[in-house]
Every structure is written in C-alpha cells, then in structure tokens.
Design brief:
Chain lengths: 313, 292
C-alpha cells in the first residue's frame, strides 16, 4: 500500500514538470514580442534591451524556463498587464469563488447522481430507468453555458427568484450570498450528475447480477441489506468520478462564470483573453492545471483505501 | 467538459457482413434512427441554407431589431441587429458543424495513427507516445483548448488547432488499447508466422478489428467537440462577427435576454440537439456492436 502511494507520488513529479513546461510555452505560443505590451511603441533600442535583460528575455529558453520556474516556486506568477497587480493575488481573490461553486456543485451532483443511478440500476428497463437515463444523457450532452442562459431566463427573468449575475456585495447575509450561487451551482452540477448516474447505473446492474448478491439472497438476506451492500460497492466509483469531475468543473468554469459574471478564475481567464493579458492567462492556467493534477492524485491514492480490492501495480 | 474514454474492448469482429449487421441492428433502434434523422435534417439544412431562405445572414435592418418569433416575414424573429434568426441559425450550422466535426476527423487521423503505431510496435515507441499523451491528459480538455486558443489569439484556424490538439490524446488511448488487444490474438500471430510484414498486418488484420470501438468513441467525441467549439466562440476565441455561428450567436444575444429571452436561448437548442444526437447515436452503436 505504502509502496503504491509512493509510486503514484513519484509519477506525479514528471507530470507536474511537464504541465509547467506547457504553461511556460504558452508565452512562446503567443504571437508578437512579449515586450510590446509593457513598452511604449517609440521606446529606444537601449530601453528595449534593458527591459529585455530585466525580464531575462535575452537568455536562452531553457534558462528562461528555470528562472520562471524558480519564481513560480516562490509564489511569484508575474504581474498582470491589465491591472498591474500580481497574478498570484488576482488568482487568490478569484479562486475562493470558483472553489465554493465547484464544491457545492459536486455535492449536489454526487447526491443526485447516486440517487438517479441507483433508481435506474435497480429498475433496469422500466419507465423509471428510462426517465433517469434520459435525464443523465441530457446532463452529459447539454452545453452548460446554454443551460446557464436557460436557467437565467426561467428563474431570473420570468420568475425573478434568483439574481442573474454577479456575486453580490461584501458584507451581505449568507442567504443573499447563496442566492447568487444557486444558478451557477445548478448549471455546473448537470454534467457530473449525468456522468455519475450513468456509471452508478451500470455498476448497480453489474453488481445485482453478481454471485455475491445471489449468495446473500440465498442466505435469506432481505432487500434493504442487499441494497446497503450494493451502495457500499457503488460508492467508491461515484467518489472517484466526483474527484476527477471537481477538477473539470474548476477548469471548465470559464464558460459558466462568463454567463453569470461570477468573479472566479474563469472570469479572470476570460478577461485575460479579452485584454490579451498573457501573464494572467499563463498563471491562471497553471494554477487550475495543478489543482487538476492534485485532485487526480488524491483520487488515485484514496480509491484503494475505500475499495481494498483495487491493488494497483 | 469531459473527454473520458470508456472501456471499449476490441474483439475479433471482422467477418463478412459485420457492418451491415450493425447497420441493421441500428435501424431497429428507434432512438438511433431518430438521432440520425435529426442530424441529417440539421446538416442538410446547413448545406442548402441559400435555398431555404432568401435573407442574407450578415445583413439586417435596425428597425426590425429583436422581433419576436412568428412576426410577419420572420418565422423565428430577428436578432439584436435585425437579422433574420432562422437564416442565421441555418447558416450558423455550417460553421458550428465544420468546427465540431473537422477537429474530430483530424484527431482520428493523427491520434489513430499514433495509437496504432504505439500499440503495434510496443516497446520504447509505445512508452514515448503514451507518456506524451499522459502529459496532455494532465490538463482538463476545455482548459487546454482555452489556453492554446487564448495564447494564439482568436481566429478560426487557432480554434481548430486548439480543439484538435485536445482531442488527439483520448483518440490515441482508445486506439492503442484496442490495437494492443488485437495484436496478441491468434490470427495476428499466424499472419506473422506466415511471413507477413508489419504494414500488411496493420492494414489487413488490425485496422478492420479496431475500427468498431474507434467509431463508437469518435461519435461520442463529436458531441464533446461541438460543445467545446461553440464554447470557444462563445468566449470570443473562435468565429468572429458577423459570421453566424451558434456559440457566438448565444454570446451576442445575451443583451436580449430580458427583452426576447426565447430568441436569446434559441441557438443553444441546436448545439444541444446535435450534441445529444451524437451521444445517443454513440450509445446505439455501442449496443448494436454488442460492446455494452
């Protein structure tokens, strides 16, 4: 077990390095000289050279990468061109918003997905299963940015129940704060709920057909107990799915946060793209990708604990 | 957005009439048939848009702004610049469908080749190709697409590059695992023993047998790709105005969400319909091929 964890941790090191290299090369990918955005057009050659040296841009690429990496490791992600503030503080402000919506959406998806998946798996082929399965595949197929717009049309424009955009002002009551979160959370929960429903449904159907259930029935175990066994078997899968989905939600938040003008990392990315603020783009992508890598790592390490049968080499 | 590869297993499937058998089973599934009809109608109406409408998708009249659906002369109303909605939705399908389907075809070609080579050759070649794939998998697909398109700057070609790069790794994984399974089957051993070269074995024995899981997977990727490509346009990284495109239309119509909510939500219905149809069709294909 310890060996597995160690091996998995070691494997994460080259992946993390590779992620950092890709994020570093984003600047190289961007067309044009990175200096043109920080310097006036009529800057003299001397000033251009000085600035180039100051940013380390006169050095070969591998040296530039190591310089950048050592800065990143010290928490310095550069300076946002648009706001002039440090990228890490911009992300620090935004990440809490993204995290809170993603966590709530995951909880909702977990509950809804488990419930729908269990119902569908237990009643395979029945109208109940058809409804649950149709809901699930709609959740997986729906463009979530459009779902957000539809929810705004219904709940904000027609019914006036929840605010359509923003996160409210500071110092508001918890209820007010939550009212701003409801629509983004619903929107974000659709896809993971659909995925969990589909995998739990398949899993329940598989378990119900397995020998241990037949054996339990033969030994006279009642349905509620068998149900408990099935849930115990389905839970690790649902948890693994939700762990990975959490990363997808945080990273994929750019579209949903744009719809709701929710001030998280997604909106930050959107602004970075609109203003061509490459340092902000690079820093935000790096942080979100590292969170994704970390969540995958956690899922891989936790899964054998929940389900001892998984003994990965 | 998820690009998750399912455990698609390759079995020795190639026999006389395998595909016609799959096709027969598919035609017996009402949901699959409905999906194929929906897709055919949307694709054909995009191709023949000029025959179906007399309006120009780029020209509108300011006095006719945001007319509700069923207004005289405008069956689905008009957009924020007074352009006929139906016309823009029909023409918009061209760009949305091309930008959703083309990246999948490119990924199929590039990723499929890499995956077949990795699976067939094995050894170091396999390690290098698969580890490189792992790196791209370390990013959630939509984030990487946004990162690449965002760094390259907006534009169709950049969005196409971003989407293709993101879709290649899952294609490599599915092809590699299918090839590895088929490679160890008896008839491949037999072919090798009777002196067939690598390329011949791939062409004659491997491709036919890995096609089924790859087709199923590519169909479900179409659903993901259509949502992602419209999503890139939605945040200004794909199509540029005045070119009609469903994702971009959703974005520009956000200003109309209070005055004409129905029109504001309309382009998304088409993205949803196409994406749902491809997903259901992928499920239908899977069960028609007995891959459950």
């Amino acid at each position: 077990m310890l060996g597995y964890i160690l091996k998995r941790l070691l494997y994460a090191v080259p992946v993390t390095l590779a992620v950092s290299i890709i994020c570093f090369s984003l600047v190289q990918l961007a067309p044009g000289d990175p200096l043109t955005v920080v310097l006036p057009a009529d800057a003299s050659q001397e000033i251009v050279d000085q600035t180039r040296a100051r940013y380390g841009l006169d050095k070969p690429l591998p040296t530039q990468y190591l310089l950048w990496l050592s800065n990143v490791l010290q928490g310095d992600l550069g300076t946002s061109i648009a706001s002039g503030r440090s990228v890490s503080s911009e992300i620090g402000h935004a990440i809490g918003y993204t995290l809170s919506v993603a966590v709530l959406a995951c909880l909702l998806a977990l509950v809804a997905g488990l419930a729908l998946g269990l119902v569908a798996g237990y009643t395979m082929g029945s109208p109940m299963d058809k409804i649950a399965s149709a809901t699930a595949i709609s959740g997986v197929s729906v463009p979530h940015y459009w779902l957000g717009i539809v929810l705004v049309v219904f709940f904000s424009v027609k019914l006036g129940w929840f605010p359509a955009m923003g996160a409210g002002r500071s110092g508001q009551s918890l209820g007010d704060a939550l009212s701003f979160m409801i629509l983004p959370v619903l929107t974000m929960a659709a896809m993971p709920a659909g995925i969990i429903t589909r995998s739990v449904r398949a899993l329940v159907a598989e378990k119900l057909g397995q020998e241990f259930v037949t054996a339990l029935r033969a030994k006279g175990m009642t349905s509620p107990h068998i149900f408990a066994h099935v849930v115990k078997n389905a839970a690790p899968t649902a948890l693994a799915v939700i762990g990975v989905q959490m990363g997808y939600l945080m990273a994929g938040s750019i579209l949903v946060e744009t719809v709701f003008a929710w001030p998280g990392t997604g909106l930050l990315l959107n602004n970075a793209i609109l203003t061509r603020d490459i340092p902000l783009l690079q820093g935000t992508i790096l942080v979100l990708a590292l969170i994704f890598v970390a969540l995958n790592l956690i899922v891989d390490i936790l899964q054998p604990l929940f389900d001892p049968r998984i003994q990965r080499a | 957005m998820t690009v998750s590869e399912n455990a698609l297993s390759a079995q020795p499937t190639r026999s006389q009439g395998y595909w016609s058998n799959v096709w027969r089973k598919l035609l017996r599934d009402r949901v699959s048939v409905a999906c194929m009809i929906v897709l055919a109608v949307i694709i054909l109406s995009a191709i023949f848009a000029p025959l179906l409408t007399s309006y120009d998708p780029a020209i509108g009249s300011v006095v006719q702004r945001l007319k509700p659906p069923l207004t005289d002369g405008y069956i689905l109303g008009t957009d924020e610049l007074g352009r006929d909605m139906l016309t823009r939705l029909l023409y918009g399908g061209r760009m949305s469908l091309i930008m959703g389907i083309l990246p999948v075809l490119l990924a199929l070609l590039i990723g499929g080749t890499l995956g077949t080579v990795a699976g067939f050759v094995g050894g170091w070649t396999n390690t290098i190709i698969m580890r490189a794939t792992d790196v791209v998998f370390a990013f959630p697909s939509i984030l990487l697409a946004v990162a690449i398109a965002g760094a390259l700057g907006s534009g169709l070609l950049n969005a196409l590059i971003a989407l293709t790069v993101v879709l290649i790794p899952p294609m490599v994984r599915v092809t590699e695992s299918a090839t590895t399974q088929v490679r160890s089957l008896d008839f491949v051993e037999a072919a090798r023993a009777s002196g067939a070269g690598g390329l011949t074995i791939i062409r004659v024995h491997i491709l036919g047998n890995i096609l089924a899981p790859i087709v199923v997977y590519a169909t479900s990727l179409l659903s993901v790709a259509i949502i992602m490509s419209a999503g890139l346009s939605f945040i200004g990284l794909g199509t540029k105005p005045p070119t009609p495109e469903w994702g971009l239309m959703l974005n520009t119509l956000r200003s109309a969400i209070y005055s004409q909510p129905l029109i504001a939500a309309l382009p998304g219905v088409f993205i949803f319909a196409v994406s749902l149809s491809f997903n259901l069709l992928s499920d239908g294909l899977r069960s028609a091929m007995d891959m459950s």
